[in-house]
Amino acid sequence: MASPLVKRALISVSDKTGLVEFARGLEAAGVEIFSTGGTGRHLVEARLAVREVSDYTGFPEMMDGRLKTLHPKVFGGILCRHDNAGDMDALDDYDIVSFELVVVNLYPFEATVAKPGVTLAEAIEQIDIGGPSLVRAAAKNHAFVTIATDPGQYAEILAQVKAEGATTPELRRKLAGAAFARTAGYDRAITAYFAGQTTEGPFPETLALSASRAGVLRYGENPHQKAAVYRAAGAAGPSVVSAEQLNGKELSYNNLLDLDSALAIVRQFDTTAVAVIKHNNPCGAAVGEKLADVTWQAMVGDPQSAFGSVLGMNRPMDAATAEVLCEPGLFVEAIVAPDFAAEALAILTTKPKWKANVRLMKIGPLAPRTSGWVYRFLDGGLLVQEADVLPDPENEWKVVTKAQPRASQWDDLRFAWAIVRHVRSNAIAVAKDRALVGAGAGQMSRVDSVEIALAKAGDRAEGAVLASDAFFPFPDSIERAAAAGIAAIIQTGGSRGDADVIAACDKHNLPMIFTGRRHFKH
Question: Which domains does the chain have, with CATH numbers?
Fold first, then answer.
């Protein structure tokens, strides 16, 4: 059977983005529009001819809109099989019209429960009943019915209706899949919300996750691996997944990982901050006043590693900073920033050799992340934990050595401690003048990480501070740090060898702080 002509559309939406233009196109193509409540009023105000569903069914909307589309004359028109004589006879017998297009998006439950202080009663009123029922009915009968659940689908549907008076089976099948994914994600969001309302604690017995595909990537970590990026349902706040790309080649899997790591570092600082990421570890980072100066300090932290790196900054890119990045010998893969001044954009896209390739990602205003969950997938399962995003309470820090940190060292100690949690464990960060000058990451032995960080720092280790994401089990790392000129140390403490480590610091007149909190990042 040929695709049925789209004679009638049933429209009932919460998100009215692009709706008037879509409806005007349908009307011009001769499609009769049926609608409900607020959607109907919105279309009528735009001078579109609309038939109210309540007029058609002879049954008024009631209960503050809770009951409006749940009626056999609505669902019969959606579920009828156009090639089934019995179905079509039933339409005639009960004065039912067929709907070949259903346009529905659901009440904003996810956005509602994401708001601070939302009450249970407010959340319940955003649980859509009729909407998911309409979506599922239309998607089930996609052999004859086109289902639109997102404004991004309107253009393709309208183009086919204008050209042929109908949609193709391929498009209807694709839209049906998207519709079932939407209702499944919606139900998972409701499930997750109610799980959080119980007294079982933060981890529900059944974990519901939902995400929509934001793009298919060129490849994964390696060229032989296929990959895609998904946007988590209900995700709020700026992220690299939702950022606007202003320039450059398509983002890769590794670009996204590194941009996310850069963003995690810079968004924790109130002052101007820049992070330089290479292979998911910071090879440079700095904080200060002027973005151009901070960027330069971050880039020279490890200039060899910074070649081909990814940058994150918590201030809009300005022209002076763009000029810094155009210095000879620098090569940057991608930059994420709240915004890019027009002058900066012009410089970065015309001056350096890499101008056409650098990915420039505008993410919008940033604020520190203060909560959330981290998911790590295993073969056959996953791990869930709280995100390690809250600053450590300094009132719990203890100076455990005879020597006390000088007032001038505290800013470096705080900075090093903020950075080391973003380095892969075993993690060591060496900082000087609020800039990262050496990092040791991912070594099986902590003393090896110390050696790498000190080698990266070189002469800059003299007078610098050193941070460790976990305790030192032996004094060997202290001896190496002292020999390199390290002036102060910050670490978690808690080892059985603490006494020996403290004694080694006292021998070299090295102040050391115990924070009492570990920051492994595996």
Answer: 8-196 (3.40.50.1380), 237-362 (3.40.140.20), 394-514 (3.40.140.20)
